[in-house]
Amino acid sequence: MAQKISERLQEIIDALPLEKGSRVLEIGCGTGVAARAITGREESIYVLAMDRSAKAVEQAIKSSEAEMSNGMLRFIQAKIEEFEWPEQEPPFDFAFAVRVGALDGRHPEIEKAALKRIAKALKPGGRLFIDGGNPVKEIDLARFRD
């Protein structure tokens, strides 16, 4: 049974620069509501959705079998501040996070490590969006790129 998407989450998704062929990294996917909504928009959008909670990822996978069947949606259990994107894999066009503690400013060292990991997983010029704007704000990753 599909979960209903909240108006707030829908506004965030609508604000993302989604285009045909986009590669998207979702940080803090929870049960996968946003990831499913994004992959449902366009067949050619690939989403890798991660959450630090194994239980949330398990639920996301269970709820996303249809969306995962074409290989354009994948869930992993990982902490963003420890995330290692394999260099042989294509990088992402952008990343987004909604209500992610590692990116909310309360834990500066964790946030710095997370931003470095995100920058490394993105294409040159790749962008990061988090909630807290109207409805999202972009985080400048320039100082976190190698």
Helices and strands in order, then pairings?
Elements: H1 7-15, E1 23-27, H2 33-41, E2 46-51, H3 54-63, H4 65-68, E3 73-77, E4 92-97, H5 108-121, E5 122-131, E6 136-139
Helix content: 25-40%
Query: What percentage of the residues does DSSP assign to strands (E)?
Result: 15-25%
In the sheet with the most strands, the strands line up as: 3-2-1-4-5-6
Shape: globular
Cα-to-Cα separation, first versus last residue: 43 Å
Low-confidence stretches: none
Order of helices and strands: HEHEHHEEHEE
In round numbers, the mean pLDDT is 94
Total E-strand runs: 6
Helix/strand-derived class?
alpha/beta
Biggest β-sheet: count, sense, barrel?
A: 6 strands, mixed
Rg, rounded, reads 14 Å
Summed up, the helix count is 5
What does this structure look like?
The protein has helices at residues 7-15, 33-41, 54-63, 65-68, 108-121, and strands spanning 23-27, 46-51, 73-77, 92-97, 122-131, 136-139. By secondary structure, the protein is α/β, with parallel strands linked by helices. It has a six-stranded mixed β-sheet. It is globular and about 40 Å long. The model has no long low-confidence stretch (mean pLDDT 94).
Name a few traits of the molecule.
146 residues, alpha/beta, 6-stranded mixed sheet, 5 helices, 6 strands
